[in-house]
Specification:
The complex is a heterodimer. Chain A is an alpha/beta fold. Chain A is built from 9 helices and 11 strands. Chain A has a domain of about 160 residues: P-loop containing nucleotide triphosphate hydrolases (Rossmann fold). In chain A, strands 7-8-9-3-10-11 form a 6-stranded mixed sheet, sandwiched between helices. In chain A, helix 7 links the parallel strand 8 and strand 9. The termini of chain A are far apart. Helices cover about 75% and strands about 5% of the residues of chain B. The mean pLDDT of chain B is about 90. Chain B is mostly helical. Chain B has one domain. Chain B has a two-stranded antiparallel ribbon. Classes of the chains: A alpha/beta, B mainly alpha. Bound molecules: adenosine-5'-triphosphate and magnesium ion. The site of magnesium ion (MG) has 5 residues of chain A, from helix 1.
């Protein structure tokens, strides 16, 4: 795989919920093996980027490319099958399925690869201990691990993480930062949607800031002044 | 008394075979299928005609296969385009389909009531203390239990069953995991329709066949699904057994209220537990 080829590219994307116009000409790229952060306050349209990719929000003008193939009118199950693993905001685990079943569901995309049930259990040993518990009986941090493990079961080329640190204690966020770093080092591209700057700084090299559905700033995180980013996220 | 309880069990298990399909369809498509009684009726008529050539078992097979195909078509041609529409639209469309089916039946089979003989294998009675009971009715209980056991096994032990349980809880989140919910829904609606069609044939020897047969069973199936908790099979099973008993015991103890009892029960459950016996669990 060409190291600099974009895995995911948004090119002037407009997106809608019904008649509500949420994204206005959003452009950004995630290249192979790269980790890109999307920052922005509450309600600016960060999750809508994910939903547009999944076909949950309606995609209007502009193009979305994954591995250089245009994604048009996607259905939600196509992303996972194409190699986009998503850990949704709020984790969205199934309370009626056990931890093990939640993970097995992640393999529904039928993509073979390095990630198996055992691999995820090795990454997050606590999930192995709680394998038969209902998915939502876990602590917040464990639930987030389950959501990430479930996304990995699709053996994705690109892992999309929508506010994974939301509501978690700093020590858990540290643990996640290490996991994201290791995944990225092994070649999985990351799209990290976050408002937690310290997590972003540890995991991503590039960023884009979203405000009112538009990308208002983007660039490298290397040596950037944190206060200049601070104003773009929730207080 | 024993006879009453047994008859309640017959009706309850039978009702489950109907209601389970309704619950499964609701789980995946979030559509309340007012055409479910019509599927049951079509199954009975298909089976009736096929049975003339191929006997009871041939009729049962034709009803199951015919309705499975019809169910898949129903999902692809009707439910899929209605995805995300408001409940009133889906209600009107499925209600319209029920009316069309009734017209279709009247056109091809007429308005008469037909009777349908039970298979020779299951005719006769069993001896119980002080009374007898038709073997065929016990076979209906076995049918209902077989459906319940088969669905439970399928849902808890197979990969597709796991996808169905996930999609019943939240179709979109299940799809995000890579479950092709379009194909899964077609399968589930096909299975639900096949169960309704088989129920139509199974009930025919004791209830007889007519264009009016759809309405009663539809109402009772809805009550079962609502009492059980929308989309929950375990809840529907319990509710079906309870409703079966209420139907027969009501006749014995509260004859004036029999027709009302199922509705009263439904209201009581909805007030006491608005999400039904099983809540939203599948
Ligand atoms: N299903 C929906 N239908 C209509 N509008 C929606 C829907 N989901 C979100 N919105 C609106 O779209 C806008 C963008 O929402 P979005 O969820 O993308 O924001 P976000 O940046 O992810 O916010 P947060 O940080 O709170 O998660 C908001 O104004 C929101 O109210
Ligand atoms: Mg969001």
């Amino acid at each position: 795989m060409n190291a600099h080829a974009p895995v995911l590219a948004f090119e002037g994307v407009d997106a809608f919920y019904g008649a509500a116009h949420i994204l206005h000409g959003v452009s950004f790229q995630v290249r192979a093996g790269e980790s890109v952060a999307i920052l922005g306050r509450n309600g600016v349209g960060k999750t809508t980027i994910v939903n547009t990719l999944l076909g949950i929000a309606r995609h209007g003008a502009g193009a979305i490319r994954f591995h250089d193939r245009a994604i048009e009118r996607p259905r939600p199950y196509q992303a996972a099958r194409a190699g986009i693993g998503v850990a949704l905001q709020g984790r969205k685990l199934f309370p009626n399925l056990s931890v093990r079943e939640n993970l097995m569901l992640g393999a529904a995309s039928n993509r073979a690869g390095a990630w198996t049930l055992d691999g995820v259990f090795d990454l997050f040993p606590v999930l192995r201990e709680r394998a038969e518990a209902p998915g939502t009986a876990l602590s917040g941090g464990q639930q987030q691990m389950l959501a990430i493990g479930r996304a990995l079961m699709a053996n994705p080329d690109l892992l999309v993480l929508d506010e994974p640190s939301e509501g978690l204690a700093p020590v858990i966020v540290d643990e996640l930062a290490a996991v994201f770093g290791a995944l990225n080092a092994k070649g999985t591209a990351l799209l990290l949607i976050e408002q937690n700057l310290s997590l972003v700084e540890r995991v991503s090299r590039r960023f884009a800031v979203l405000a009112k559905g538009r990308v208002v700033e983007e660039g490298s995180l290397d040596g950037i002044d944190r206060t200049s980013l601070q104003r773009h996220i929730a207080i | 008394m024993l006879i009453q309880i047994l008859n309640g069990l017959v009706y309850g298990t039978f009702l489950f075979a109907m209601a389970s399909g309704l619950a499964l369809m609701f789980g995946l498509r979030r559509i309340v299928n007012f055409a479910h009684g019509a599927l049951y009726m079509l199954g009975a008529y298909f089976g009736y005609t096929a049975a003339k050539l191929a006997g009871f078992w041939g009729g049962l097979l034709v009803a199951a296969l015919g309705l499975a195909v019809l169910g898949v078509a129903l999902d692809i041609l009707v439910f899929r385009p209605l995805r995300g529409r408001d409940p009133l639209t889906t209600l009107l469309v499925t209600f319209g389909l029920a009316l069309i089916s009734e017209d279709f039946i009247q056109t091809f089979w007429g308005n008469d009531t037909h009777s349908f003989a039970e298979p020779a294998l299951l005719s006769g009675v069993v001896q119980l203390p002080g009374t007898t009971f038709p073997i065929y009715r016990l076979a209906i209980v076995a049918f209902g239990i077989l459906v319940a056991g088969g669905l439970a096994f399928w849902l808890t032990r197979s990969k597709v069953g796991l996808y169905v349980r996930a999609a019943s809880h939240d179709p979109v989140i299940a799809a995000v995991q890579g479950v092709d919910t379009d194909r899964l829904s077609a399968l589930v609606v096909g299975v639900g329709a096949a169960l309704a069609g088989m129920a139509g044939v199974v009930a025919a020897p004791i209830l007889s066949i007519s264009p009016a047969m759809a309405a009663d069973i539809l109402v009772d199936s809805f009550i079962v699904v609502v009492i059980g908790g929308l989309g929950s099979l375990g809840g529907a099973f319990a509710a079906a057994l309870i409703l079966g008993q209420i139907n027969v015991l009501g006749v014995v103890f509260l004859p004036e209220l029999t027709a009302l009892l199922p509705f009263l029960l439904m209201m009581a459950v909805l007030i006491w537990r608005p999400t039904g016996l099983a809540g939203s669990r599948v």
